[in-house]
Every structure is written in structure tokens, then in C-alpha cells.
């Protein structure tokens, strides 16, 4: 239980990858603050399972982020994970979708980080882990906002890694390939439309085509990596962008 006594906030942790990260950190003794949307009864069950509290803050709203951070108190481990996707050709890309995706997938991490860093510096220990994506390193068509936000998140992470390096605080990205979660499932209809493909073709010829293992990544694999990055043995892993993509970005 190497995280006993540490407080961890994982954004977007009511589902998918964030929930697996929260479970992995809780299993090592961290006190969890969950964030995200979902069925109220399910969220109550998750809080009971993990001994966690929950913030329903909408992270596209800086005022709600500030209120969440204020209520959370001093955070030792900050995982910026909440994110969303929209798939459309650039000329048809809805302007409000662009704004929302940049706000959630990129700007929210700036706000949580700027508010969490003073306590981390004071304590001389902290971990900031940002869920980026293979799309922080390479692009796919029809994902203009997502690719831009994730590339930006990589740059933001490197910047704070350098700023915080002498304060015992590390900042890294974890970059999954395709993980079977609601975020991936929900983009299949728009991808079918944008590319004129069937559901099976989208899964095999778009999603898994570049993932050399031809397998979806499991959320628990990301949870295990995030827990490793919180270890003292990972104190020199800083400013990295760690791929978990079955070899996609090795090509
Ligand atoms: P998901 O849809 O299962 O979970 C998203 C989480 O974010 C949920 O808890 C949801 O309630 C929360 N959320 C959504 N909008 C929010 C808002 N405005 N404010 C606060 N919380 C909000 O998705 P996932 O696949 O688990 O994705 C998690 C992260 O992993 C995202 O940043 C995503 O870009 C990234 N990622 C996912 C994949 C994949 O294949 N699934 C691959 C690479 C990166």
C-alpha cells in the first residue's frame, strides 16, 4: 500500500479509463476523489467501493473546476483524464464541439494543475499524470479538435515537468491506443458516416488497423501504469509521453 496517506483526484473517473485508474490507486491505499458524470446511484456505489468522494464538476467550466479543487483540499496525485471525442470533416466540424473539446481535453488540465501545484511544491512531492492518447503523437483524419487538444496536452505536460522537476513533482502523459470504452463505442456511428464504412469495417479497418497487436487496450493496463508512475522508483520518469498502443506509434 505505497500510496497510503496520499490524496488522488482523477478527473473523468466515473467511467472507462479514469475508473480503472481510480481503482488502481485506491488498491494501493490512496484516498480518492472521483469526478465525472453518470447515474447518481452508480456513483454512490463507486464511492462506497473505493471509499471515495465525488465531484460532479463540469470541467468545461473554469469556475466549477475552481470549486472542485477548493473542496478537494491538498492533492498529492492529480490525474487529468476527462475527455471527449467528436468525429467530423474539418469543414463540417461544429464550432461548439471544437470549443468544448479544447476546454475539456486541454484547458481543464491547465486549471486543475495551476490550482494543485502550490500544495505539491510545499510538500516537495507530487504526481501529475495526464491521459493523452496516441493522437497526442500522430493524427487521424476527422478528429481535428481531439488531435489538437491531445498534442497540446503533451506540450503542456513537458512544460510543467521542467518547471516542477526540482520540487519532487513529476508530470507525464500516458497515451493509450484504442481502449474499448463508451468514448470509443460512441464514435463508431460518426466514423461510419464520415468514411462510408460498416461498423465491422470501422472496428477492424480503422480502429485496430494501426494497433499492431490487433487488440484493444484494457483500461486496467492504464491503471497499472499510472500506479507505477506514482512510485518513488519513477521519480526520474518526468516529461515522458508513455505509449500503451500495441505498437501503433512505433511505425
Ligand atoms: P469515457 O467516455 O468512458 O469516460 C470519460 C469520463 O469523462 C467519464 O467519467 C465522463 O463522465 C467524464 N466527463 C465527460 N465530460 C466531462 C465534463 N465536461 N466534465 C467532467 N467530466 C466529464 O472515456 P474513456 O475512453 O475512458 O476516456 C478517458 C480519457 O482517455 C479521455 O481523455 C480520452 O481522450 C482518453 N483516451 C481514450 C482512448 C480510448 O480508446 N478509449 C484512447 C486514448 C485516450
Shape annotation? globular
Number of helices: 9
SSE series: EHEHEHEHEHEHHHHE
What is the first-to-last residue Cα distance?
38 Å
Strand order of the largest sheet: 3-2-1-4-5-6-7
- Could you report the average pLDDT, rounded to the nearest whole number? 97
Global structural class: alpha/beta
Per DSSP, what share of the residues sits in E-state strands of 2 or more residues?
5-15%
Helix content: 40-55%
Q: Which architecture does the CATH hierarchy give at level 2?
A: 3-Layer(aba) Sandwich
Bound molecules: nicotinamide-adenine-dinucleotide
Return residue spans where pLDDT drops below 50 for at least 5 consecutive residues: none
Reading off the top of the CATH hierarchy, the class is best stated as: Alpha Beta
Number of domains: 1
| Main sheet characteristics | 7 strands, parallel
Q: According to CATH, what is the topology?
A: Rossmann fold
Nearest-angstrom radius of gyration? 17 Å
Q: Quick one: how many beta strands?
A: 7
CATH homologous superfamily, by name? NAD(P)-binding Rossmann-like Domain
Enzyme class: oxidoreductase
Protein name: 3-hydroxybutyrate dehydrogenase
InterPro entries: 3-OHbutyrate_DH, NAD(P)-bd_dom_sf, Sc_DH/Rdtase_CS, SDR, SDR_fam
GO molecular function: 3-hydroxybutyrate dehydrogenase activity
Amino acid at each position: 500500500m505505497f500510496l497510503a496517506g496520499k490524496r488522488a483526484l482523477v478527473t473523468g473517473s466515473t467511467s472507462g479509463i479514469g475508473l480503472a485508474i481510480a481503482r488502481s490507486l485506491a488498491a494501493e491505499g490512496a484516498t480518492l476523489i472521483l469526478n465525472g458524470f453518470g447515474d447518481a446511484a452508480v456513483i454512490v456505489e463507486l464511492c462506497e467501493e473505493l471509499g471515495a468522494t465525488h465531484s460532479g464538476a463540469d470541467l468545461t467550466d473554469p469556475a466549477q473546476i475552481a470549486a472542485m479543487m477548493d473542496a478537494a483540499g491538498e492533492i498529492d496525485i492529480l490525474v487529468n483524464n476527462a475527455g471527449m471525442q467528436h468525429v467530423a470533416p474539418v469543414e463540417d466540424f461544429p464550432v461548439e464541439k471544437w470549443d468544448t473539446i479544447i476546454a475539456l481535453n486541454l484547458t481543464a488540465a491547465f486549471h486543475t494543475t495551476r490550482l494543485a501545484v502550490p500544495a505539491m511544491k510545499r510538500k516537495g512531492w507530487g504526481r501529475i499524470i495526464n491521459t493523452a492518447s496516441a493522437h497526442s503523437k500522430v493524427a487521424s483524419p476527422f478528429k481535428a479538435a481531439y488531435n489538437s487538444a491531445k498534442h497540446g496536452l503533451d506540450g503542456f505536460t513537458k512544460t510543467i515537468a521542467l518547471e516542477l522537476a526540482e520540487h519532487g513533482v513529476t508530470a507525464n502523459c500516458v497515451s493509450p491506443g484504442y481502449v474499448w470504452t463508451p468514448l470509443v463505442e460512441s464514435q463508431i456511428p460518426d466514423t461510419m458516416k464520415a468514411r462510408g464504412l460498416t461498423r465491422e469495417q470501422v472496428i477492424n479497418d480503422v480502429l485496430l488497423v494501426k494497433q499492431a497487436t490487433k487488440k484493444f487496450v484494457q483500461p486496467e493496463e492504464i491503471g497499472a501504469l499510472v500506479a507505477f508512475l506514482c512510485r518513488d522508483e519513477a521519480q526520474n520518469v518526468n516529461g515522458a509521453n508513455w505509449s500503451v498502443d500495441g505498437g501503433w506509434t512505433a511505425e
